[in-house]
Amino acid sequence: MTFRSPIQHCRACGTAVVYRLPDDGDTRQRAVCPACNTVHYENPLNVVGTVPEFADGRVLLCKRNIEPRWGKWTLPAGFMELDETTSQGAARETDEEAGAQIEMGPLFSLLNVRRVGQVHLFYRARLLSEQFNPGYETIEARLFTEAEVPWDELAFRTVKETLEHYFADRKAGQFGLHCIDLE
Q1: Which residues does the UniProt record annotate as the domain Nudix hydrolase (predicted)?
Q2: Cα end-to-end span (Å), the chain
Q3: Which residues, at least 6 apart from 58, have a Cβ–Cβ distance to it below 8 Å?
Q4: Does domain 45-182 match CATH 3.90.79.10?
């Protein structure tokens, strides 16, 4: 199943669009305005976040206070905003959701979630404190060892995959970059 959020009206002039191949040689059907010829492109959304790790290997998870998946645990993450880099967005989301003080690390996982039109990017981040001040989107923010992670209560498969790779890499003593395609 391919994700599609059909555009119905031109964002430039409001005319009902038609789906067809644009006249510019594009090979995909696009929403094209028959009145002003504006071609509307639909692109994936970026979700950015962190794997906040304390020096002892525990990771910070947030219990969601919003839908979808209210009451489930997740890594701090959210949609990237315009005019920010992926790492800036990840740091912002970590502050907004957990109120955690971090030092950003390298990109750790990139997950393509085609069915919902998203790309998830998680960075490793070093926690500078065990004090958290969660925002309104979070019921609770706390540290977990691998054995304590509520695996059956994780909100998203991208979070589960990222955490599994994090703990495996930690055990191996070497962290890599993980690119994962989810159906």
Answers
A1: 40-167
A2: 9
A3: 143, 144, 145
A4: yes
